[in-house]
Amino acid sequence: MGRMPKKNSLTASRVLALLMAYLTLCVAGGVVSSVLLMPAVFGANKVAQAVAPSLKVEGIDFDVTSLPQKSTMYASDGTTKIAEFYEDNRIVVPIKEVSTYMQKAIVAREDRRFFDHSGVDVQGVARAFVNTYLLQKAQQGGSSLTQQYVKNVLLTQAEQSGDPIAQYHASEDTIARKLREMLIAVQMEKKYSKYEILQGYLNIAQFGSQRLYGVETAARRYFGVSAKDLNIVQSATIAAITKNPEHLDPSIEANQEESQNERNTVLMLMHDQGMITDEEYDEAVNTPLVDTLNIQPMTAGCANSGEYGFFCSYVTQKILNSEEFGKTAEERNSLLKEGGLTIVTTLDVDTSSLLMETARNTIPADDPSGFEIMMASVQPGTGEVLGFGINRTYTGYETDDQTETSMNYMVDAIDGGGSGYGIGSSIKPFNLVAWMQAGHSINENLQTTTSYPTYEFACDDYSGSSTMYTGGTDSWSVSNALTNGTVNPESPFLGLVRSHNTTMASMGAIIGLCRVADAYTAAGYHDAYSGETIDKSSVYAPAMMIGSINVSPLTMANMYATLAADGVECTPIAMKKVTRMNGEEIDVPKANCHQAIDSDIVQTVAYAMNQGTVRSDGAGVYAKLPSGRKTFAKTGTHEDLMVSTGGFIPKQIATFVLVGDAQAPGSNRIANIAINGVYNSYWDGGTIAAPAWRSFMDAWADRKGLGTDVGNDYGNPAAKYTATTGGVTNIKGQTVGGSTRSNSGATSNSGTGTTSTDDRNQSAQSDDADDESDDE
């Protein structure tokens, strides 16, 4: 066995040698240090100035405005806070915005000779050496406040760069790290004033758990005040935390006794250093910590946004998906969490509040049915998304609680939503757009049937150079709700008013699916999952004309907004203004508003929609606004899986409502079930979605001070699209027989100006339901 090494005793000469070596490394860093041998070394901080190395430290930015700061998201009013985002919860403030008591408290606690030394406190270093190496007490660093600032900056920059080696060197427990910090600290003192350094430290230091940094954030978190208003007791409490941020955080009840003890230590240091009077000390030290606290909730992320959580998630995804905020997703995420952005969104507080209230009143969150109600509103002509409504709470994480969800069902998959939903007949107004865009009148009498060969819907790109949809050898079976049959002949106008599937099918067979797809696209349609418009034959199917599509409620709200804006289509936008810390604005995604549909067509469609809510045979009677305001709406039923209603107040707001099982949209059927205590064997757009829509729209109009005459001048049909045409148009587009135009704008031929008993019953109960065979 080898011999154990002999323990060296600490002789006087060895102690002196160690001390000199330690001080030489710490202060001189290899520079000639004979001046350190002078007898007054322990009392002369001027020594540090005499031996300060003339080294330059490159690539280190000590500007406090470059520190990572939290970003804050606001509603459109610029004052209602939605959420905060951060890796480090920090708000940078200038030293003039920090109370004198707080400045004194941190100096008393961390570096009593801060205003005397030149970056390295020789006396502190010597004290640390004696305690650590001679008395073998707990290790002490003797770091000046300037050195601590340097250490924090180096560590922060290493973390920002994602460099694990730099992070290690910035935090390793070695004399080499101490030496580097001292050398940089001395350089710092040459470049910056004491108050600039103190400002930097107060903004970068950690003052609590959960990555809480900076004195301003600490003041707001623990006391609900700004740093400039901190009193003696509050200042001492915050200054004490730096010793152990995790275990001295006063917001944690288990920490409060020790936090008070450390606070009192700081108060004693302030008193002993002449910073506070005897009376101030006595009053402060005898004040219970718990009596001073006013803990404010942490607000990081959308999960803490309350009823704004779903909108917050939407905006966040828009930032992460938009190149305006960085070239990569990683850059965009860093900007959001560290860039100190001020994000003013398009969310309207009134709209959001009413949407959420309506959703929860319609179907309570804990309703045994388990169904979701999803609502979205858009401002016509601007693309601004005004808010979302849903009977769920946003969590930001997966949960088994049916009242909570991490998915925003109102938006596309890329924006944090699902793959889209079938919506039923609420798509039909856009079929009428396609019909008129193809040059047809809404009063043509169409031959209808319950079976259409799919090849009859064939179409090309109008140039004849390529075929877009050819159909096949199969047939599409389609019928109308309750009658299980057809009305033959019937005009497109009455087909929309009564919401008849067979007439929609006849229109598609005449003009082809390409024109239908073009009309949907012009209004703002795209697939919720793929993001594609209907511009590929692989997604063409005749059943799309009765709502067998994959679309989000927001997209549908935006399509109705196009009708509400006289044909002006805009891309939905979530942000009005985003500003950096220095006041520089960042470009935000644009709405790109443009005239997408001819005004005469839009006015004619609006007329037909309104007639569907006021005529006795109208399928949308349950959407009629009880205030007497002119109503423009269309209900829909997608088999017995999803029910909907979409509509608008011209120039003001467009809203879409969807009800069903959003988590299992293809299996949990909305039939033979009680919802909110009411049982129905057959639920449809008229029985639940329409009441929610009309309740919200009237409440919104009242909240915004709109009179009952709003929209009265909208929906004026254009003569060229309501003109009489001769005869009945068959599915080939050929005219057979004659017809006349009635004063109401409907055509009358063989009794087609009236509706059958079955259809009357249908309109009294609901709008149409799509035949189950139509949808896969």
From TrEMBL:
Catalytic reaction(s) noted: [GlcNAc-(1->4)-Mur2Ac(oyl-L-Ala-gamma-D-Glu-L-Lys-D-Ala-D-Ala)](n)-di-trans,octa-cis-undecaprenyl diphosphate + beta-D-GlcNAc-(1->4)-Mur2Ac(oyl-L-Ala-gamma-D-Glu-L-Lys-D-Ala-D-Ala)-di-trans,octa-cis-undecaprenyl diphosphate = [GlcNAc-(1->4)-Mur2Ac(oyl-L-Ala-gamma-D-Glu-L-Lys-D-Ala-D-Ala)](n+1)-di-trans,octa-cis-undecaprenyl diphosphate + di-trans,octa-cis-undecaprenyl diphosphate + H(+); Preferential cleavage: (Ac)2-L-Lys-D-Ala-|-D-Ala. Also transpeptidation of peptidyl-alanyl moieties that are N-acyl substituents of D-alanine
Pfam families in alphabetical order: Transgly, Transpeptidase
All copies of domain Glycosyl transferase family, residue ranges: 81-270
GO biological processes: cell wall organization; peptidoglycan biosynthetic process; proteolysis; regulation of cell shape
GO cellular component labels: outer membrane-bounded periplasmic space
Keywords attached to this entry: Carboxypeptidase, Cell shape, Cell wall biogenesis/degradation, Glycosyltransferase, Hydrolase, Multifunctional enzyme, Peptidoglycan synthesis, Protease, Transferase
Penicillin-binding protein transpeptidase domain: residues covered: 379-697
A GO molecular function held by the record: peptidoglycan glycosyltransferase activity
Biased amino acid composition, Acidic residues: 767-776
Keyword Transferase applies: yes
Biased composition (Low complexity): 737-766
Top-level taxonomic group: Bacteria
Family: In the C-terminal section; belongs to the transpeptidase family.
Record protein name field: Carboxypeptidase
Provenance organism: Bifidobacterium samirii
